[in-house]
Amino acid sequence: MLLVTGTSTEVGKTITTAALAAAARAAGRTVAVCKPAQTGIAPGQPGDLADITRLSGVTRTVELARYPDPLAPDTAARRCGAPLLTLGETAAAIEELDADLILVEGAGGLLVRLGDFTLLDLALRLAAPVLVVAAAGLGTLNHSELTVRALDSAGIPCAGLVIGSWPHTPDLAAECNRDDLPRVTGVPVVGAIPAGAGAWDRARFTAAAADWFAEPPTTPDPARSTPS
After folding, report:
1. Which terminus of the chain is less hemmed in, N or C, by CB atoms within 10 Å?
2. Residues 13, 25, 35, 178: which is the catalytic one?
Protein backbone atom coordinates (compact mmCIF):
# COMPACT_ATOMS: atom_id res chain seq x y z
CA MET A 1 0.00 0.00 0.00
CA LEU A 2 1.18 3.49 -0.81
CA LEU A 3 -0.39 6.86 -0.02
CA VAL A 4 0.24 9.73 -2.43
CA THR A 5 0.28 13.31 -1.19
CA GLY A 6 1.50 16.60 -2.60
CA THR A 7 3.38 19.59 -1.31
CA SER A 8 0.30 21.60 -2.35
CA THR A 9 -2.58 21.41 -4.80
CA GLU A 10 -2.03 21.13 -8.58
CA VAL A 11 1.43 19.58 -8.31
CA GLY A 12 0.60 16.40 -10.25
CA LYS A 13 -0.68 13.88 -7.69
CA THR A 14 -3.27 12.35 -10.01
CA ILE A 15 -0.92 11.90 -12.96
CA THR A 16 1.76 10.51 -10.64
CA THR A 17 -0.76 8.05 -9.21
CA ALA A 18 -1.73 7.02 -12.73
CA ALA A 19 1.94 6.54 -13.63
CA LEU A 20 2.54 4.37 -10.56
CA ALA A 21 -0.52 2.30 -11.46
CA ALA A 22 0.56 1.94 -15.08
CA ALA A 23 4.10 0.91 -14.13
CA ALA A 24 2.81 -1.65 -11.64
CA ARG A 25 0.37 -3.12 -14.16
CA ALA A 26 3.13 -3.33 -16.76
CA ALA A 27 5.11 -5.37 -14.22
CA GLY A 28 2.21 -7.81 -13.90
CA ARG A 29 0.77 -6.57 -10.61
CA THR A 30 -2.87 -5.92 -9.85
CA VAL A 31 -3.69 -2.39 -8.73
CA ALA A 32 -6.54 -0.68 -6.90
CA VAL A 33 -6.84 3.07 -6.36
CA CYS A 34 -8.81 4.99 -3.73
CA LYS A 35 -9.56 8.72 -3.81
CA PRO A 36 -11.27 9.31 -0.45
CA ALA A 37 -12.63 12.76 -1.26
CA GLN A 38 -13.10 14.54 -4.57
CA THR A 39 -13.97 18.24 -4.64
CA GLY A 40 -14.91 20.71 -7.35
CA ILE A 41 -16.67 18.08 -9.46
CA ALA A 42 -20.41 17.72 -9.88
CA PRO A 43 -22.17 14.34 -9.59
CA GLY A 44 -21.75 12.33 -12.78
CA GLN A 45 -18.76 14.29 -14.02
CA PRO A 46 -15.43 12.48 -14.46
CA GLY A 47 -13.02 13.15 -11.62
CA ASP A 48 -9.46 12.17 -10.77
CA LEU A 49 -10.21 8.45 -10.76
CA ALA A 50 -11.54 8.70 -14.31
CA ASP A 51 -8.22 10.23 -15.37
CA ILE A 52 -6.32 7.44 -13.62
CA THR A 53 -8.42 4.81 -15.39
CA ARG A 54 -8.07 6.57 -18.74
CA LEU A 55 -4.28 6.72 -18.48
CA SER A 56 -3.40 3.47 -16.69
CA GLY A 57 -6.27 1.08 -17.41
CA VAL A 58 -6.91 0.46 -13.71
CA THR A 59 -10.60 -0.23 -13.11
CA ARG A 60 -10.56 -1.11 -9.39
CA THR A 61 -11.24 2.38 -8.07
CA VAL A 62 -13.12 3.75 -5.06
CA GLU A 63 -14.29 7.30 -4.34
CA LEU A 64 -15.89 7.74 -0.93
CA ALA A 65 -17.20 11.31 -1.09
CA ARG A 66 -17.73 14.06 -3.66
CA TYR A 67 -18.45 17.73 -3.05
CA PRO A 68 -19.23 20.42 -5.66
CA ASP A 69 -17.15 23.34 -4.32
CA PRO A 70 -13.42 23.37 -5.19
CA LEU A 71 -12.32 23.63 -1.55
CA ALA A 72 -10.70 21.50 1.11
CA PRO A 73 -12.95 18.44 1.55
CA ASP A 74 -14.05 19.22 5.10
CA THR A 75 -15.00 22.80 4.16
CA ALA A 76 -16.71 21.65 0.98
CA ALA A 77 -18.70 19.07 2.95
CA ARG A 78 -19.90 21.63 5.46
CA ARG A 79 -20.93 24.07 2.73
CA CYS A 80 -23.19 21.53 1.04
CA GLY A 81 -24.49 20.00 4.27
CA ALA A 82 -22.88 16.63 3.70
CA PRO A 83 -21.49 14.51 6.55
CA LEU A 84 -17.74 14.54 7.00
CA LEU A 85 -15.79 11.47 6.07
CA THR A 86 -14.42 9.70 9.13
CA LEU A 87 -11.03 8.13 9.59
CA GLY A 88 -12.59 4.81 10.55
CA GLU A 89 -14.85 4.43 7.52
CA THR A 90 -12.11 5.56 5.14
CA ALA A 91 -9.52 3.16 6.53
CA ALA A 92 -12.06 0.32 6.45
CA ALA A 93 -12.93 0.96 2.79
CA ILE A 94 -9.26 0.95 1.82
CA GLU A 95 -8.53 -2.20 3.79
CA GLU A 96 -11.31 -3.99 1.90
CA LEU A 97 -9.54 -3.46 -1.42
CA ASP A 98 -7.85 -6.54 -2.81
CA ALA A 99 -4.83 -5.96 -5.05
CA ASP A 100 -1.07 -6.40 -5.13
CA LEU A 101 -0.69 -2.61 -4.90
CA ILE A 102 -3.22 -0.26 -3.31
CA LEU A 103 -2.73 3.43 -4.07
CA VAL A 104 -4.51 6.15 -2.08
CA GLU A 105 -4.48 9.67 -3.50
CA GLY A 106 -5.03 12.51 -1.07
CA ALA A 107 -6.39 16.01 -1.69
CA GLY A 108 -4.04 18.97 -1.70
CA GLY A 109 -1.24 18.58 0.82
CA LEU A 110 -0.50 16.27 3.71
CA LEU A 111 -2.44 18.20 6.37
CA VAL A 112 -5.54 19.06 4.33
CA ARG A 113 -8.64 17.78 6.16
CA LEU A 114 -10.29 15.01 4.17
CA GLY A 115 -13.04 14.81 6.80
CA ASP A 116 -12.33 14.50 10.50
CA PHE A 117 -8.78 13.49 9.59
CA THR A 118 -5.80 14.27 7.36
CA LEU A 119 -3.76 12.04 5.07
CA LEU A 120 -1.15 12.00 7.84
CA ASP A 121 -3.74 10.49 10.19
CA LEU A 122 -4.71 7.96 7.54
CA ALA A 123 -1.10 6.92 6.99
CA LEU A 124 -0.72 6.34 10.72
CA ARG A 125 -3.94 4.32 10.87
CA LEU A 126 -2.96 2.16 7.89
CA ALA A 127 0.76 1.97 8.81
CA ALA A 128 1.51 2.87 5.19
CA PRO A 129 4.37 4.85 3.61
CA VAL A 130 3.69 8.13 1.84
CA LEU A 131 5.05 9.30 -1.52
CA VAL A 132 5.39 13.07 -1.84
CA VAL A 133 4.67 14.76 -5.18
CA ALA A 134 6.49 18.07 -5.50
CA ALA A 135 6.60 20.97 -7.93
CA ALA A 136 9.72 21.65 -9.97
CA GLY A 137 10.11 25.41 -9.56
CA LEU A 138 10.73 28.06 -6.94
CA GLY A 139 9.26 27.33 -3.52
CA THR A 140 9.45 23.57 -3.80
CA LEU A 141 12.41 23.18 -1.45
CA ASN A 142 10.56 24.76 1.46
CA HIS A 143 7.26 22.99 0.75
CA SER A 144 8.95 19.62 0.28
CA GLU A 145 11.07 19.86 3.41
CA LEU A 146 8.06 20.88 5.52
CA THR A 147 6.09 17.90 4.22
CA VAL A 148 8.90 15.40 4.78
CA ARG A 149 9.55 16.80 8.27
CA ALA A 150 5.88 16.34 9.16
CA LEU A 151 6.05 12.71 8.04
CA ASP A 152 9.28 12.14 9.94
CA SER A 153 7.90 13.71 13.11
CA ALA A 154 4.95 11.32 12.96
CA GLY A 155 7.18 8.32 12.33
CA ILE A 156 5.74 7.70 8.86
CA PRO A 157 8.16 6.43 6.19
CA CYS A 158 8.50 8.72 3.17
CA ALA A 159 8.78 6.59 0.03
CA GLY A 160 10.53 9.40 -1.83
CA LEU A 161 9.78 12.49 -3.86
CA VAL A 162 8.36 12.64 -7.36
CA ILE A 163 8.44 15.82 -9.41
CA GLY A 164 4.89 15.85 -10.70
CA SER A 165 5.44 17.97 -13.82
CA TRP A 166 8.98 18.18 -15.13
CA PRO A 167 9.18 20.97 -17.75
CA HIS A 168 10.29 20.25 -21.30
CA THR A 169 12.83 23.06 -20.97
CA PRO A 170 13.69 23.35 -17.27
CA ASP A 171 14.94 26.70 -16.01
CA LEU A 172 17.82 27.21 -13.61
CA ALA A 173 15.57 26.90 -10.53
CA ALA A 174 14.15 23.57 -11.66
CA GLU A 175 17.58 22.16 -12.50
CA CYS A 176 18.99 23.24 -9.14
CA ASN A 177 15.93 22.00 -7.24
CA ARG A 178 16.23 18.52 -8.71
CA ASP A 179 19.72 18.33 -7.20
CA ASP A 180 18.84 20.11 -3.96
CA LEU A 181 15.62 18.29 -3.03
CA PRO A 182 17.39 15.15 -1.74
CA ARG A 183 19.88 17.31 0.16
CA VAL A 184 17.32 19.39 2.04
CA THR A 185 14.73 16.65 2.64
CA GLY A 186 16.97 13.65 3.22
CA VAL A 187 14.91 11.49 0.85
CA PRO A 188 15.59 10.69 -2.82
CA VAL A 189 13.84 12.00 -5.87
CA VAL A 190 12.52 8.69 -7.20
CA GLY A 191 10.78 9.99 -10.29
CA ALA A 192 9.77 12.87 -12.53
CA ILE A 193 6.68 13.01 -14.73
CA PRO A 194 7.01 14.92 -18.03
CA ALA A 195 4.87 18.04 -18.23
CA GLY A 196 1.75 17.39 -20.28
CA ALA A 197 1.81 13.60 -19.85
CA GLY A 198 -1.75 13.68 -18.56
CA ALA A 199 -2.94 14.55 -22.06
CA TRP A 200 -1.31 11.50 -23.64
CA ASP A 201 -3.29 8.48 -24.80
CA ARG A 202 -3.14 5.30 -22.72
CA ALA A 203 -0.80 3.39 -25.01
CA ARG A 204 1.84 6.11 -24.97
CA PHE A 205 1.42 6.77 -21.25
CA THR A 206 1.65 3.15 -20.12
CA ALA A 207 4.60 2.44 -22.41
CA ALA A 208 6.60 5.29 -20.87
CA ALA A 209 5.47 5.28 -17.23
CA ALA A 210 8.01 2.85 -15.78
CA ASP A 211 10.89 4.91 -17.21
CA TRP A 212 9.81 7.96 -15.20
CA PHE A 213 10.86 6.36 -11.94
CA ALA A 214 14.56 6.17 -11.19
CA GLU A 215 13.92 3.49 -8.57
CA PRO A 216 10.81 1.77 -7.24
CA PRO A 217 9.02 4.15 -4.86
CA THR A 218 7.44 1.27 -2.97
CA THR A 219 7.80 -2.45 -2.37
CA PRO A 220 5.11 -5.14 -2.46
CA ASP A 221 3.05 -5.54 0.70
CA PRO A 222 3.37 -9.25 1.54
CA ALA A 223 0.16 -9.17 3.57
CA ARG A 224 -1.79 -8.10 0.49
CA SER A 225 0.08 -9.84 -2.31
CA THR A 226 -1.89 -12.10 -4.59
CA PRO A 227 -0.62 -14.24 -7.46
CA SER A 228 -0.13 -12.20 -10.63
Report:
1. C
2. 35
